[in-house]
Each structure stands twice: as structure tokens, then as C-alpha cells.
Amino acid sequence: MNVEPSRRSLLNGAAALAGAAALSPLLVACGGGGSGNQGGTSSEQGLASALPDHVPSDAVTPDIAPVEGAAGAISPPGFLRYPTERVRTVPEVPGSGGTYTTLTPLWGAVPPADNEHYRAMNEALGATLEMAPSAGANYGTVLPTLTAAERLPDWVQLPGWLNAQASTGRLVGTQLADLTPYLAGDRIRQYPNLAALPTGAWRGGIWQDKLYGIPVHSGTFTLGGMFYHRRDIFEERGIDANEVRSADDLFALGEELTDARAGVWAFEELWPFIDLIFPIEAKFRVVDGRLVHRYEQPEFIEALDWCRRIVDAGLLHPDALTGSHNDDASKARFYAGQSLITADGGGSWNGADADAGRAANPGYRRGCFMPFSADGTSEPRLPLMWTASWYSYLNIKLRPEQIEECLRIANYLAAPYGSQEYTRITFGVEGTHWTEGPDGPRYTEQGTIEAQPGTYVFLANPIAVVSNLGYPQITEDFCAWAAEAVRYAYKPVFWNMNITVPRRLATADAAQAVEDTISEVSRGIQPVSAFQEALGTWKRNGGDELVGWYETEVLDKLGTGQE
Fold first, then answer.
1. Which of 123-127, 137-141, 145-149, 325-329 has the least mean pLDDT?
2. Which intervals of the chain are annotated as region Disordered (predicted)?
3. pLDDT tens, position by position, 84-110
4. What is the sign, positive or negative, of the torsion defined by CA atoms of 13, 15, 17, 19?
């Protein structure tokens, strides 16, 4: 979602996770040919005993209140400007003089070491965090080297989408500390800002009935993506996007919008988020107690054929046939009005997007289609992604008193948006790193270099909110959309469950050959029959065995995770 800070902004424009990988459980392969439960999914009883209590915070009041929706989803609160009354949520200095090494990813310029922001933060924390951000693009190659040598720092960020590369399931309890004795149940109440994080977020940090990970960048309405349109152009042409209520309506609108002679096409690539329209279950659907993989769900072929029809009708921008999904070129086409409908992550709807769009067209305004179903009669269904897919971990070598000190620091870092602590963490020292503007803090030149990159947020941070300082209309638009869309949320099968897949099935689980074929079919490069052939090969070469493993080792023993 478009949150502050958002996953999208953290990845600095990197492609959003899509397809099976985006909505599947946080997976990690383990050795051997057995059940592969090392570091794997927790039992219902074990999960219940390891989960911390949830105690919502009312320390900061948003301008736009969240809305409760389906499946426990809650739309994010909205702030039209930065709170002027900045409450203090951590009354005492959290640290006791310890020094801790850290490792976090960072996309963008790395701040200078031992800068003024870091020094001020250490003073506020009463401890020394040796911040050592590593280039995000190479983060997946840094971690295996450290884990193999057992040289992890005291506090490390291990994103869920790197679980396989980092072998997280084999690190818990061997290199990563068990936090269950410190945070389970009512023990978390001594850390009220951590207790305010949603319950679902903590589930992703639990492995084999024990809590290890501290959730980062959590949200209660997290979607893989959204379907956007050029609202300014639609309004100019008298087009009401809310009249699109089916896949046929969207196709017809595409025909109306496309004018190849004028250099305008309706669509950028839509396939990666097609399950927002067609009811394709994220990875599995349960039918009569058995699992049906998304590739074998009848709606999958229907969706693939629909995307192929868009290409055949000439409605997809021709450059989208060869480019990467949501690359800089596709964004530039959308800004220039060469394409008018696109699919992208929630974090793309923000102030930076408005600046880029208005540079190409002063009237630029992004809009989002309200949820609709492919057939136009069924209720829309929006699959929730993980409540959090980033987790920080503490080193098992830390003594109990050091773990407690780090958790007090984490509680400080998780202070709610707009609080005194959040302001210090995010913006730095007033007068040095920021000055007060009409909508809230504004970075100085020094603040842009030292504080804006946001290194501490990968250790702990509060639940996501919608905030676009200086762009209140964007916040209003987003919150209005989310308040309606949250009604259609659902939890996919194995939602928020860590699952350790045996190494012998890792290739089948990744299904890269099938995914490559799907990409080519959806862009019109290969016929739909090519997917059916790739599916048959996948089933014979481990796909059927994979589905059977999920049935016997996860579904039958541990349930669906949808409760």
C-alpha cells in the first residue's frame, strides 16, 4: 500500500513482487528428502503460545480514520499533514550503554559513517547502534557469506523474500535468538510500541512454534498491486472509471482509449496483478480437502487468454511487449499519456509520483479503479499479502540482558508516526537535519544526506500509515479508495505462514520455466497452448509431488492459516 514508508519507496522503484512469488508463503528450502520441517511452519497450538498480545495505540490521532473491512483487514490511517503535537511515547532512555553491530539493506546513497544523525540517535537511545547499511541490490549475496561463516552482526534484517537465499529456517535457534521468552503473550506489554504492531505481522517471525523475528513495515491491508488510470485524462474525456465493473468493460474501455496513430495505447502490462480481477487463488485453493495449484485453477487460463486478447487487439503499448514490468520506461509512458492504464504497487501512488507526472503533464493525476470481478456479477476479491514481509533478528550470542536492551531500543524505533521518537528517527535533529514547514518537517541539505535514507526502519518501525506531506489530495484519494476496497479482502491459503520446502522440491516450487512461459504468453509471444505444455512438464517434474507435499505436510497437519 501507499504507506509511510512504503515497501515500494524502500525498493526505490524496483519491480514489485508478482505472481506466485508475491502471494505465496515466505519460503525457505531445506536439505534432505524428508518432510523438511526444519525451521518450518508452526502448529496452531505453538503459534498461539508464541504470539505476543496486541495492544493498539491511540497515542497519535490521524486525520482520516482507518476502516475495518473483511478478513480482519483494516485500511491504513491517513495524515493530511504532519502532527503538530508530537507526543512522547517512550518516557525513559531505552538503552543502558551497550554497543551493537547491525546490518540492513539500503536502496540509494549510503549515509556517511558516524554522521551527526547517527550520533544524535545513539544519544537518544542511550546505546550505540553501529549502522552499516549495505547496497540493497547485492544484499542477497552478502547474507549467505556471513551466515556460512557464522559472522552475523548483533542485529540483522532478513527480508522474508530472501528466506531461501539466507536459509532463515536453518538459522533460527542456531544463529538467531529466540525471542519467545521476552515477547510472547503479555510479556510484550512492557514494550507498548511493539505491542501495537498487528498480530498477523508477528506470525511471520515465528518458526517452529518460537518467535524469532521483529516485524518491519507492517500493515493491515497489504496488497500486491493495484490497477491505475490517468484520472486527469479520464475526466477530460468524460470517462467514469467506476463504470468499469468487469473484464469485458475494461477491454471495451481499452478499445475506446487506444489510438495508435496518435501514439496512445490503453494498457501497460497487467498480468502480474491479474488476480485482482480474475479469482485466481494466490498459490493454492482448497477444494474438497485437496489443494489445487493456481496453475490448474480454471480461472488461470481464462486470465491468461484475456491478457493475450489485449495484445492481439493492439491495446497494449508495443514497448511493453519487450520491456520489464513497471520499469522506468513504462512509468515514463504513463506520465506522458502514451499509456493510460497500468498495474503497479500501492507505493507508487505518492508525492514523488505526482512530481514525475506533472513534469511531463502539469495536469497529471493518478487514479485507481475500484475493485471489480472478471464476470461483473461475482463479488470482487482482493488477496492480502503478508502483514509484514520484512523481519529483523537478534544474534543468539547476545546475553539475555543485551536482548532486553535491544528490545527496548526496538520499542523506541517502533514509536508511532508523528511522535517525538518517530520525528527524531525519521528527520533527525531540528535545525540541523530539518526545519518546520507548512505541512511538517522539511529536510535540510544535511538531512537529505544523513537522515532521509532511512536506515533504522529496517530494525523496527511502526505500523504503516498514508502520508504524503504537501500532497493532501493524494492521501485523501488513496484513503477513499482503501476504505471501499478493504471490504473485499481475503486471506489466501497459507497466509502469514513460514513454510520450509525440501530442497528436492525447490525447483518445482519456484517453477521458473513455467513463469517464463506465462510471461511470454501474456505478452502474445507464445500461444496459450505453450503454457499448457509447460504445465504438463512441471507436473511431471515435481509439480504434482510438490502439491502432494503441501497437502500432507502443511494442510493436513497445520491447516490453511486463514483463521
1. 325-329
2. 34-63
3. 999 999 999 999 999 999 999 999 999
4. positive
Helix (H, G, I), strand (E, B) or coil at 349: coil
What count of residues does the chain have? 563
Instruction: Judge whether 59-220+386-490 and 226-277+298-383 match in fold.
Output: yes
Within 13 Å, how many C-alpha atoms sit on residue 301's CB side?
Answer: 12
pLDDT of 480 over the 60 cut: yes
The pLDDT of residue 46 is: 85
* CA nearest to 348, candidates 67, 14, 75, 74: 14
Please, where are the H alpha helices in 414-499?
420-427, 445-450, 472-485
Closest among 73, 56, 20, 50 to 562, alpha carbons compared: 73
| Span 200-215, pLDDT tens digits | 999 999 999 999 999 9
Q: Does domain 59-220+386-490 have CATH number 3.40.190.10?
A: yes
Q: Is the pLDDT of residue 350 over 90?
A: yes
All three cell numbers of 392, joined, read 529483523
The 3-state DSSP class for residue 216 equals strand
Q: Would you list the DSSP string of 66-114?
A: --B-GGG-BPPPEESS--SS------S----S-EEEEEEEESSPPPPTT
User: Among residues 196, 105, 276, 112, which one has the least CA distance to residue 464?
Assistant: 196
| 434 secondary structure, DSSP code | E
What pLDDT, on the 0 to 100 scale, is given for residue 41?
A: 63
Boundaries of every domain in the chain: 59-220+386-490, 226-277+298-383
How far does Cα 136 stand from its chain's mean position?
Answer: 15
Amino acid at residue number 20? A
Query: Domain 226-277+298-383's class?
Result: alpha beta
